[in-house]
Amino acid sequence: MKKNKIQSFIILIVLSLIWGTSFILIKKGLIGYPPNQVGALRIVLAALVFIPYAIKNFRKLDFHLYKYILAFALLELGIPPFLYSYAQTVVNSSTAGILNSLVPLFTLLIGFIVYKVPTNKFKVLGVMIGLLGAILLVFFKTGDFTTVDFANSWGLLIVLATLMYGLGSNILKEYLQDISDMDITSIAFISMGIPAFFYLLTTDFFHITFTHPNAPTAFGSIALLSVFGSALAIFLFAKLVKKSNALFASFVTYLIPFVSMLWGLLDGEGITPIQILSMLMILSGIYIANLTITSKQ
To answer: Which of 87, 135, 231, 281 has the highest CB neighbour count under 10 A?
Structure first.
C-alpha cells in the first residue's frame, strides 16, 4: 500500500510538469497551423506511438467493454484537443492552465450526479467556489467588474473540456478498472487517431507543413505535445487512476496552473491579479471539496 502511494505521488508530479507545459506547446503550434489542424495532428501523432502495441493486443480486448473505451477516448482524447486549440486562439496559456484546474470539481459533480457518489456540504461549497473562480477568469479577466469580457468567453471551451475530463475519469474508474493501462491507452488513441488522420487529409495541412515559415516550430511543438502531453500523459493518468482513484488523479491540476503560469511568464505573458485570484479560488474549492475525504484516509 505504501509503495502504491509513493508511486502515485511520483506520477502525479510528472503529470503536473507534462500537462503544465502542454498549454505553451499548443500556443506554439498555433503559430503555424489553424486550431482544427493542431487538434487533429495532436491526436494523430499520439496514435502513431501506440500502433505496434494496439495491433499486437487488439484481439485480447473484451469487446463488450469497447463502448466504454470509446466513450473514454472521445471524452479524454477525441474532443478536448480541439476545444483547447480553439480556446487558445484567444485565451493565453496561463489562463488555459488555470481553467484546467476545474477537472477535480467536475469529477466530484459527475461522480455525485451520474454515479451517485455521496456528497456533503464541503463538496458543494468547494464546487461553488471553484466555479465562481472560473467565472471571474472567463468574464472579468481585466478586473473591471462593471464590464463583461465576452471576448475572453472562449475560455468556456476549456471549461467544457474539463467537464469531459471529469466524466472520462469516472468512466475509467467505474467500467475499465480491470483492463491494463496500455490496452486502454492504445485502443483509445487508435480509435481517435484514424478519423483524425482522414480529417487532416481534407484540410490544407500538407500545404502549410511544406510552405509556412513557422511550420517546423509548430510541428515540433505539437509532436512534443502529442508524445508527452497526450500519449505518455494519458497512459500515466490511467495508471494513476487505477492505483488511487479518479479524484486523487485529478489533483494533478493543483500543480498544473503554476507550471503553465511559469511558461507564460517566460514567453512574455503577463500575470493579472484576476488570474491569481481565480487560481486561488479554484484551488481552494478543490481543497475544501476534498476535506472530508482527506480526513478519512
So the answer is: 87
Amino acid 198: pLDDT: 97
End-to-end, the C-alpha distance of the chain in Å comes to 12
Per-domain residue ranges of the chain? 2-296
- pTM of the predicted model, to two decimals? 0.85
pLDDT averaged per 10 residues in sequence order, the chain, 297 residues: 73 87 95 97 92 74 80 93 95 90 85 76 86 86 64 85 91 81 83 95 96 96 89 77 68 82 90 89 85 46
- What distance lies between CA 91 and its chain's CA centroid? 16
Q: Is the dihedral of CA 61, 64, 66, 68 positive or negative?
A: negative
